[in-house]
Amino acid sequence: MRAWCGCVCCVQAEVKGDVTLQRRWEAYDKLGTFVIYVMSFVLGIQAIGLEVTSVLAIGGIGGLAIGLAGREICENLLNGFLIMSTNPFEVGDEINFFHNNKMVEGFVIDIGWYRTNLRSFEREVFVIPNAVFSKNIVLNVSRKNREWRFLEVLSLRVQDVHKVQPTSLHAWWAAHWTMSSPPGVQARGPQ
């Protein structure tokens, strides 16, 4: 039932065109499938008549060996899961970060369990392990929501300040700029 619900949510995300949500549901579906396989394996061993605790102990020792040998693989998989869960960036977002004293910037073209693909402005494709994102500060340029700050300096002579009303400045600003809130008007004397 749960896999079917995930499949329905994945199809709904695909219909909406939300690629990131679709990938997230696909990742959850793969994780759920893995858990079902592991549980089926454990229950199958128990049904055969073997003691599950001894098999789990052997698995624990094997897990330790794999964990020490494949630390980077596990780190990348865990960070891939965190990226898909916390959603710091999505497919299509422009991101910037430093790695080994080099600025890496580009558009996210794919987010996977192990790696993320970026396309640079020079059309180069970077394949970046997900562990890199947990060790660096990532700037998501696409989440600015097209809001920018501008400093507009309007010079007036001191003898002309009484001629200008703040409402006329607001009207001039509204005619030239589109913004969410009107600017504040500050009057300063000569410096």
UniProtKB/TrEMBL annotation:
Keywords: Cell membrane, Membrane, Transmembrane, Transmembrane helix. The chain crosses the membrane at residues 31-49. It is a multi-pass membrane protein. Gene3D superfamilies: 1.10.287.1260, 2.30.30.60. GO terms for cellular component: plasma membrane. Its main location: membrane. It is found in: Cell membrane. GO terms for biological process: transmembrane transport. Residues 73-143 form the Mechanosensitive ion channel MscS domain. Residues 33-70 form the Mechanosensitive ion channel transmembrane helices 2/3 domain. Belongs to the MscS (TC 1.A.23) family. This is Uncharacterized protein. It comes from Haematococcus lacustris (Green alga).
